[in-house]
Amino acid sequence: MFDITTQAVADTAALHLKNAAGEPLYADAERTKPVQIILHSPGSKAFSAVETAQSARAVKRLKANDGEITATTAEERLQQTADDLAMLTVRFENFAYPPAGDAQGAELFKAVYADPKLGFIAKQVSKFLTDWSNFTGK
Predict the structure, then answer these.
(1) pTM for the full model?
(2) Cα angle vertex 27, ends 122, 84, to 5°?
């Protein structure tokens, strides 16, 4: 009998960031220090918490608008995406974001994800999170 638990995904995985042109980023000239974001997997409690928060926002929006579906503004969408991705981020590796000053953890993550000029980062993270195979460790 096949043990299906052998197919379980890891709790986290590393996303090697690319620049806006699609080239892998490194923190050093020798290209030995990849610029990475460590993320919680779709099978994690953190991911479940984000899905719950997204559902709660949708219900709140419906209630506030008498049951009618309404779109969020671009600013709201950017902030909500930043909040969600920050909840799914474990850490940044080999890069800094000086505009955030001394911010650490979720505050730092939100600042990076909310920066429209670095929007390619949030897009990469979002795409990475939708592919369970990124968390197989293979």
Answers:
(1) 0.89
(2) 20
Sheet with 89-93: strands ordered across: 12-16, 36-40, 89-93
Cα gap 113→85, rounded to integer Å: 7
DSSP reduced 3-state for 39: strand
Contact 81, 126 (CB under 8 A): yes
Q: Which residue has the tokens 């460590």?
A: 38
Q: Is the pLDDT of residue 138 over 70?
A: no
Termini Cα distance of the chain: 23
- Start-end of H helices in the chain: 45-64, 74-87, 105-114, 119-129
Helix axes 74-87, 119-129, angle to 10 degrees: 60
User: At which residue do the structure tokens 């995904």 appear?
Assistant: 9
Query: Residue 8, SS3?
Result: coil
- Residue 72 is classified by DSSP as P
The pLDDT score that the predictor gives to residue 15 is: 98
Is pLDDT of 65 > 80? no
Supply angle C-alpha 14, 109, 104, rounded to 5: 105
pLDDT (mean) for 2-30: 96
